[in-house]
Specification:
This protein is mainly beta. It contains one helix and six strands; from the N terminus they run ββββββα. It has one domain: Ribonuclease P/MRP, subunit p29 (SH3 type barrels, Roll). The longest helix has 11 residues.
Length: 93
């Protein structure tokens, strides 16, 4: 399945460019880079210009993914493992 704006929450997010555009933790707002890992509750982002990785909690954050257009996603919409998000899509059909 190709990653499109209408199906992004059901796809693998690893490898996508992401920016945190809002968070209950103000220190996370503005973090951007590439998603290098994902758990049910966290995105691990490799930040640009450094080898550092940031752990971003999904439930308290709002994300902007570039695929190549910008798609804004609420963290609560992706706060499941990729497998569970795909199961949710299959149940909708």
């Amino acid at each position: 399945m190709n990653v499109m704006p209408d199906n992004i929450i059901y796809n693998e997010l690893i490898g996508l460019r992401v920016s945190v555009i809002g968070s209950k933790d103000p220190s996370l707002t503005g973090v951007s880079g590439t998603v290098v890992d994902e758990t049910a509750n966290m995105l691990v982002v490799s930040t640009t210009g450094s080898a550092r990785r940031k752990m971003i909690p999904k439930m308290i954050s709002r994300f902007s993914f570039l695929i190549p257009e910008e798609v804004v996603v609420e963290g609560s919409d992706i706060a499941l493992s990729p497998e569970e998000r795909l199961k949710r899509l299959q149940r909708r059909r």
